[in-house]
């Protein structure tokens, strides 16, 4: 039996065969004709123009009508639906029904085989057709369900992950050393004596009790196909230990691993061809749940997974147009626990249960989509699980609110805030107090509880309310539209009520999308407003699109409820506390997965408030100290030190700085021997000693840290008087050469704590070449992502960045000659300004949000590359374009700011031993110094206040109605009048609460 395909897709240059319903029809038709001994009709193929071939080959099949056999597409669809659970004529429906089909396959075969022999020939053909149909669909499903995406092989010393390059777009094997968990990519073949296991992907490395464990996706279901790529739902997670000789994990470790495995099951999704964490308007890692787990992996191995929901369906409209609908809900990991542990907003503007829902519609080669979002009420509040009440903090939420809205406004022009909280409630009143309408914010209120009072669902009132916002609902489209308005919907828990309203808002968006696709809404759906038709309860009088749409949104709501509510309210006390404990443990597991610090403060909101108060009052126990840092970078072109007086010229400062950072590139010649072989320790020690001696002619310095990677070398010296203030020194290397496996290119990193500020020095050597700018930017991003800079106060990145000037060699040389020949300073500055305008780093900063975070002092010197050796003449051999390749960049991360760049220049001296010239920078900065005694005293004071407040909440209400309460009240009043710090006599108060106390 031959397979006929009427649709094929090109993926990574290889044809991927996909059988459509037309393909099924063709095969079935041929099978029936063969059974009836009828000649198979010829098939005419029409191929589109050559230039469209690489995108998709479209084959139009035209079978001649046969008088004895006539099977239409609708007949085939009806036949399949009558005997098999398929709701649509597309591959997604078949995949979604795969489990039911497999379970019923044997039963169906038995039914068919037991058919009466008295049936007519046509019945016999139908029976044979059904048998054939089951065989075909089973094979079709297996094409997806039984694909091997990856194979994991565990040997005594290695973990080998071998991907299918066509299905995953990953070209190389990944090797992980089971001794130190280091990893690298390889194309080599390995020992086949070990049995591999089929897996679906790698989640990353998780540490339990300090032991790294590889987490992988052991099983997953395909829930649909988007743009030719399957979307998977994780159903099972496995792990592999560091070394198989080690003893088994103890009970605690096993429990932690089981919780992590359970976390990722059923509510997480991924795809190898579609980035589910982002929509095209912007990208944000807050939806990438395993980001921390896979950050050490090569970029193509960093599989992005989301928590939330994905649903897909496809139907045929009356005009025979195919319409595919995709619903994606991605939940942020910030405050990503359950409602018992995560509510409200934090100081960074992140709200609990923040979920971005994206609906995408494909029709006639066009694509349109709409973004909606929901999230917890953006105030500082908690849910009291014991008495089912809300506790609102007195902390001012204005700044947090502004940050929250700025996050949304960074991608949309206007926010439409739809508030479903009851009028007159605490939360509603608090929102009214802090929320005010503006050009960028519109506020709509709807009392949902009143509309559904006593189970009387007043859907008309919802529809009338939604009519007010209909004109503001828009979308993005391949036809040229861009969504400008974002609907931000919330109720008390952002679940059921929000889902009802959001479903209707989404359908309003769908109606506008379909109208933009020229679909006649009235003719197709027999309705003017589709969001009103959603209220029709009977499935017999509703359009199939609306039926499936409602189904997907109901599944979406159920999934989000499952995630956020976790353990439902239970009247049984034991079950109640069991749920509460499990959810706190779940939150701890989430924080471990995300790499957030784990402490009791995260299980106790009161302690979190305490930490915020300590942060606000840090000026009471910290002071800012003025310090100086000197940085020098030089590509030494494998020069070996000889004339020691030459290197004194590198340190051009009058007052010795507190820290000196030196970065060299091309310490040795970059060839196979030096890149792959061992480091030349003699060269390293020689340079280190010479630089140490040179520095100590200025002041007394000691070496704080060093790191080397092939030819990239960094040293950080600190004044001897300051060495006791250096702590937490860490060094790293980040390889970028040859697929991030070799150190001829990359970065060396030193992180240290100076007083109580964290500083990071990164010496980089980026890819060379006039036309390699994209590769340079990729290397720059990769190095900084691997450096993990979140805990740093500021970063200094320097080195041979290899950015070039986008002009010809003749143009740049002519400009340099003009600069050298004129005396007028304004004309000199004009020449430099012209060169800088074509500098690749300058041009990249104009379009890269990441680069804009880096500051570089104004360049007031000529290009530092490339010179003929032993001359001051720019390259006359290969005539490379003179460029500003050697740079020093500064980035502030925390609030401690770089005070000023005092000096930034090309270092003058006889440096003709290299084809580069060194660059130096003197920075005046501020560092924090914490008075630990003052901090401890403040902390104890706040703890005491917290204890007294909690004690007061517990006992003062109990003594308000007893006869001994009056003297206690007078005591408190007198204390206030005399400005006396009140320290409650807890023993007395407890006695006062005793009814028998006289």
Automatic annotation (TrEMBL):
Supply one GO molecular-function term: phosphatidylinositol-4,5-bisphosphate 5-phosphatase activity
Boundaries of each SAC domain copy? 267-566
Q: Which residues form a coiled coil?
A: 600-627
Which PROSITE patterns does the annotation name?
A: SAC
What protein does this entry describe? SAC domain-containing protein
- UniProt source species: Paramecium pentaurelia
Q: Which Pfam families match?
A: Exo_endo_phos2 (PF22669), Syja_N (PF02383)
Q: Which InterPro entries match?
A: IP5, IPPc, SAC_dom
Task: Give GO terms for biological process.
Answer: phosphatidylinositol dephosphorylation
Q: Does the keyword Coiled coil apply?
A: yes
Keywords from the named record: Coiled coil, Hydrolase
């Amino acid at each position: 039996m031959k397979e006929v395909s009427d649709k094929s897709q090109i993926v990574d240059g290889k044809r991927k065969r996909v059988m459509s319903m037309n393909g099924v029809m063709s095969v079935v038709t041929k099978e029936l004709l063969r059974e009836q001994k009828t000649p198979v009709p010829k098939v005419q193929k029409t191929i589109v123009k050559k230039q469209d071939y690489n995108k998709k080959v479209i084959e139009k099949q035209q079978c001649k009508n046969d008088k004895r056999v006539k099977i239409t597409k609708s007949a085939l669809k009806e036949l399949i639906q009558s005997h098999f659970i398929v709701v649509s004529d597309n591959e997604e429906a078949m995949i979604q029904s795969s489990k039911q089909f497999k379970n019923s396959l044997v039963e169906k075969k038995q039914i068919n085989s037991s058919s009466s022999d008295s049936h007519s020939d046509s019945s016999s053909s139908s029976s044979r057709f059904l048998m054939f149909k089951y065989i075909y669909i089973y094979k079709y499903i297996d094409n997806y369900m039984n694909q091997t995406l990856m194979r994991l092989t565990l040997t005594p010393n290695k973990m080998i992950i071998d991907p299918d390059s066509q299905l995953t777009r990953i070209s190389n094997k990944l090797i992980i050393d089971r001794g130190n968990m280091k990893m690298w990519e390889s194309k080599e073949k390995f020992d086949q004596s070990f049995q591999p296991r089929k897996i679906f992907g790698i989640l990353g490395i998780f540490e339990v009790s300090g032991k790294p464990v590889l987490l992988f996706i052991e099983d997953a279901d395909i829930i649909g196909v988007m743009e030719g790529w399957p979307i998977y739902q994780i159903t099972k997670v496995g792990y592999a230990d560091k070394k198989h000789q080690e003893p088994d994990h103890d009970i605690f470790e096993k429990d932690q691993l089981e919780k992590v495995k359970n976390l990722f099951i059923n509510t997480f999704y991924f795809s190898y061809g579609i980035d589910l964490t982002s929509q095209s308007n912007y990208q944000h890692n807050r939806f990438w749940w395993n980001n921390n787990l896979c950050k050490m992996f090569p970029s193509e191995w960093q599989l992005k997974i989301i928590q939330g929901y994905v649903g897909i369906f496809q139907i045929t409209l009356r005009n025979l147009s195919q319409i595919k609908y995709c619903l994606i809900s991605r939940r942020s990991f910030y405050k990503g626990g359950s409602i018992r542990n995560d509510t409200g907003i934090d100081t960074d503007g992140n709200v609990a249960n923040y979920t971005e829902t994206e609906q995408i519609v494909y029709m006639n080669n066009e694509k349109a989509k709409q973004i909606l979002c929901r999230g917890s009420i953006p105030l500082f509040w908690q849910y009291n699980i014991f008495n089912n009440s809300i506790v609102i903090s007195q902390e001012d939420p204005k700044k947090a609110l502004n940050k929250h809205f700025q996050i949304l406004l960074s991608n949309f022009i206007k926010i439409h805030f739809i508030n479903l909280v009851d009028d007159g409630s605490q939360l509603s009143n608090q929102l009214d107090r802090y929320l005010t309408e503006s050009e960028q914010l519109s506020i709509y209120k709807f009392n949902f509880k009143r509309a559904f009072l006593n189970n009387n669902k007043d859907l008309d009132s919802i529809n009338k309310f939604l009519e007010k916002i209909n004109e503001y609902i828009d979308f993005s489209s391949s036809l040229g539209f861009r969504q400008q308005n974002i609907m931000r919907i919330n109720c008390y828990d952002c679940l059921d009520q929000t889902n009802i309203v959001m479903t209707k808002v989404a359908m309003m968006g769908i109606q506008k999308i379909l109208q933009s696709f020229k679909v006649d809404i009235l003719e197709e759906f027999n309705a003017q407003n589709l969001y009103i038709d959603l209220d029709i309860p009977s499935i017999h009088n509703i359009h199939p699109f609306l039926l499936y749409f409602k189904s997907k949104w109901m599944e979406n709501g159920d999934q989000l409820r499952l995630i956020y509510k976790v353990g439902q309210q239970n009247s049984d006390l034991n079950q109640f506390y069991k749920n509460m404990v499990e959810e706190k443990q779940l939150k701890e597991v989430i924080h471990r997965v995300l790499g957030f610090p784990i402490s009791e403060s995260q299980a106790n909101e009161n302690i979190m408030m305490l930490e915020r108060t300590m942060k606000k009052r840090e000026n009471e126990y910290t002071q800012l100290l003025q310090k100086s840092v000197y940085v020098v970078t030089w590509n030494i072109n494998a020069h070996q030190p000889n004339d020691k007086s030459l290197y004194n010229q590198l340190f051009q400062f009058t007052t010795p700085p507190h820290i000196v950072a030196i970065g060299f590139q091309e310490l040795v010649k970059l060839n196979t021997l030096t890149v792959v072989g061992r480091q030349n320790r003699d060269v390293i020690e020689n340079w280190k000693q010479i630089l140490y001696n040179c520095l100590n002619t200025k002041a007394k310095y000691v070496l704080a840290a060093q790191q080397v990677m092939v030819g990239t070398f960094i040293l950080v010296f600190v004044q001897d008087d300051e060495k006791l203030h250096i702590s937490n020194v860490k060094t790293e290397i980040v390889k970028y050469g040859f697929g991030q496996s070799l150190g001829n290119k990359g970065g060396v990193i030193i992180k240290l704590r100076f007083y109580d500020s964290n500083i990071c020095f990164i010496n980089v050597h980026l890819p060379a070449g006039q036309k390699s700018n994209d590769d340079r930017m990729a290397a720059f991003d990769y190095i900084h992502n691997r450096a993990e800079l979140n805990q740093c106060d500021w970063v200094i990145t320097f080195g041979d960045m290899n950015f070039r000037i986008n002009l010809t060699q003749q143009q740049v040389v002519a400009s340099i000659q003009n600069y050298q020949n004129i005396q007028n300073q304004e004309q000199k500055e004009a020449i430099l300004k012209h060169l800088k305008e074509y500098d690749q780093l300058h041009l990249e900063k104009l379009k890269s949000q990441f680069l804009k975070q880096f500051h570089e002092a104004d360049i007031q010197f000529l290009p530092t590359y490339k010179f003929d050796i032993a001359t001051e003449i720019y390259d006359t051999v290969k005539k490379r374009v003179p460029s500003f390749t050697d740079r020093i960049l500064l980035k502030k991360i925390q609030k401690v700011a770089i005070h000023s760049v005092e000096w930034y220049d090309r270092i003058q001296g006889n440096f003709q031993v290299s084809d580069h010239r060194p660059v130096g920078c003197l920075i005046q900065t501020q560092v924090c110094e914490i008075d630990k005694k003052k901090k401890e005293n403040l902390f104890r004071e706040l703890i005491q206040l917290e204890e007294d407040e909690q004690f007061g909440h517990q006992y003062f209400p109990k003594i308000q109605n007893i006869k001994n309460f009056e003297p206690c009240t007078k005591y408190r009043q007198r204390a206030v009048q005399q400005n006396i710090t009140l320290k409650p006599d807890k023993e007395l108060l407890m006695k006062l609460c005793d009814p028998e106390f006289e």
